[in-house]
Design goal:
alpha/beta, Histidine-containing Protein, Chain: A, Alpha-Beta Plaits, 4 domains, four-stranded mixed sheet, three-stranded mixed sheet, 13 helices, 16 strands
Length: 423
C-alpha cells in the first residue's frame, strides 16, 4: 500500500469515529502474559512526538507528550479543535499505546468575530462534495458553533462537524444534526454487513478475533485488537445503514501478536469476492455512490471505470479500493467530467482562493498553473500532511481533471528512531 494511503487514512479521515478513552483499555500484561516484551514509555513518547512533527510540524509544535504504563497524556495548546483531534488520533496509532488522555487547550480564540467564522465555515461546506449546504443551519456565538438540520447520512454529519473543527477561532462545536430516517433492516442483515466490512478492511488486522452481535439495531462488538486506532476504526466500520448505536467497549487492546493458537490467517479471496467487497465499500461512501463506478478485478488488480464531476471523487474511489483486503494494485480509469467546466483562469483563481482560506494551508505561500484542467502545484510547506492536503483541496475544485504536485518541504524529514523502525 502506498505511504500516502496510510497517511491519508490516519489524518484525513474526516468521518472517523470518536477516540477511545484510556479507561476502556484492558491491562496489556494481563492480556499478553508474562513473556510479553515490555514496551518502554520513553520510546513511545519519542515515537509519538516524532510522528506529530513528521505529519504537521507547525501545528503540533506546542504539544507535549508524556507516557506512563502505555497511557499517553497530551498537554499544551492546539490552534484548532481539528488539530486537537488529530493529535489524539495519531497518538492512538503508535504501537503500545493503550489509551490517550487529552489535556490540550484550544487557542487562540476570540481573535475572529462570529460573522467571519460563520462565513468561513459556510465556504468550507460549499467546497465539500459531501455536505449539502442547504441541509445545515450554522449559528456562531462567541466562538461556539451550533449545527442544526437534517442530513442524508452519518458521513455527511461527521464531515460537517470536522470541517467546523478545522476553522481556527472556533472553540466548541455543538451537534444538533439529525440523520434522516432510513428503512428498518433485520438484525441478521446488519450483522452480515458489519462482519463483511471487517473481513475486507486492510486496517482490521485479525477479524477472526472479533465477534459481532446486533440486537434491535444496536451493534455490539467484542474481541481483541492490536491498537487503539484499530478499535476506533472498527467502531466506524460498524456504522452501516440502519444501525442505531455501536458498542465496542467489549473490545480489548493487546499491542503484541495475539496467542498463536488463537490467530488465523485471512482466507484467500477470489477476484469476484474482492470485486463485490469494493462495490459494497463504494456504495457506503456518499461521495462515490451516486456515480455508479464499474469495478473489475483480475489477479488482484482492480480496474475502476466511470465518470465523476470532481477529481476528489475519483481519488476517493481509488482510496476505497486500496483499503480492501486482497487488492494488489488499482488501475484508475475514472474520467473527470462536469456539465459546466470553467476556463483555466477561473480554475486558477479558485485554486488560490481555496489555499488562502484553508485553515491548514493559509500560513504558506502556495501557487500553481493550470492548462486544460491539468493543475501543477508549487510552493513550500512543512510536512507531508500539508503537501497531501493541498492536493485534496485542489481536487475539490470544479474543472480540475489531474494534479501534479511539485510542492517542496521547508526542511528535511525527521529521521525515524530505532524504536519507530520496530513499530
Amino acid at each position: 500500500m502506498p505511504v500516502y494511503t496510510a497517511i491519508i487514512a490516519l489524518v484525513l479521515g474526516l468521518w472517523a469515529g470518536p477516540g477511545i478513552a484510556a479507561e476502556d483499555v484492558e491491562n496489556t500484561a494481563e492480556v499478553a502474559g508474562e513473556e510479553v516484551e515490555e514496551v518502554h514509555d520513553i520510546g513511545m513518547a519519542v515515537a509519538i512526538k516524532n510522528r506529530l512533527s513528521r505529519v504537521d510540524r507547525r501545528s503540533f509544535s506546542s504539544i507535549e507528550v508524556s507516557v506512563k504504563n502505555g497511557i499517553v497524556t497530551l498537554t499544551g495548546t492546539a490552534d484548532s479543535l481539528w488539530i486537537q483531534q488529530r493529535a489524539t488520533e495519531l497518538s492512538q496509532a503508535i504501537r503500545g499505546v493503550r489509551g490517550v488522555i487529552d489535556r490540550l487547550s484550544v487557542g487562540p480564540v476570540g481573535t475572529t468575530n462570529d460573522t467571519a467564522l460563520k462565513k468561513h465555515l459556510e465556504y468550507l461546506f460549499l467546497q465539500d462534495p459531501v455536505v449539502e449546504r442547504d441541509d445545515i443551519h450554522v449559528n456562531v456565538i462567541k466562538g461556539v458553533v451550533t449545527l442544526k438540520g437534517r442530513v442524508h447520512s452519518r458521513q455527511e454529519k461527521h464531515t460537517a462537524l470536522n470541517l467546523a473543527k478545522m476553522v481556527k477561532g472556533i472553540r466548541e462545536v455543538r451537534d444538533l444534526l439529525k440523520v434522516e430516517n432510513v428503512l428498518d433492516r433485520p438484525d441478521s442483515i446488519l450483522k452480515e454487513e458489519i462482519t463483511h466490512r471487517l473481513a475486507f478492511d486492510v486496517w482490521v488486522v485479525n477479524p477472526s478475533l472479533l465477534h459481532v452481535q446486533v440486537e434491535k439495531g444496536r451493534a455490539i462488538l467484542t474481541g481483541q485488537v492490536g491498537s487503539v486506532y484499530e478499535k476506533s476504526r472498527i467502531a466506524d466500520l460498524a456504522w452501516v445503514e440502519s444501525v442505531q448505536s455501536v458498542d465496542v467497549s467489549g473490545i480489548t487492546i493487546n499491542w503484541v501478536s495475539p496467542d498463536p493458537m488463537m490467530r488465523t490467517q485471512r482466507p484467500t479471496f477470489t477476484d469476484r469476492e474482492i470485486s463485490n467487497a469494493i462495490q459494497k465499500v463504494l456504495a457506503y461512501d456518499r461521495r462515490v455512490a451516486p456515480f455508479g463506478i464499474s469495478v473489475t478485478v483480475k489477479n488482484g488488480t482492480v480496474t475502476l471505470k466511470g465518470n465523476v464531476p470532481f477529481l476528489s471523487i475519483r481519488r476517493e474511489a481509488e482510496q476505497n479500493a486500496n483499503n480492501t483486503v486482497g487488492v494488489q494494485s488499482v488501475n484508475n480509469l475514472i474520467r473527470v467530467q462536469s456539465k459546466s467546466t470553467p476556463n483555466d483562469a477561473d480554475i486558477h483563481a479558485r485554486l488560490l482562493a481555496s489555499f488562502s482560506r484553508d485553515p491548514v494551508l493559509e500560513p504558506f505561500t502556495l501557487g500553481g498553473s493550470v492548462k486544460k484542467g491539468a493543475v501543477l502545484l508549487t510552493g513550500t510547506v512543512d510536512s507531508i500532511y500539508e503537501r497531501n492536503h493541498a492536493e485534496n483541496v485542489a481536487s475539490r475544485i470544479r474543472g480540475v481533471t489531474s494534479l501534479t504536485n511539485h510542492i517542496s518541504f521547508s526542511s528535511p524529514e525527521i529521521e525515524k528512531t530505532d524504536w519507530e523502525i520496530q513499530l
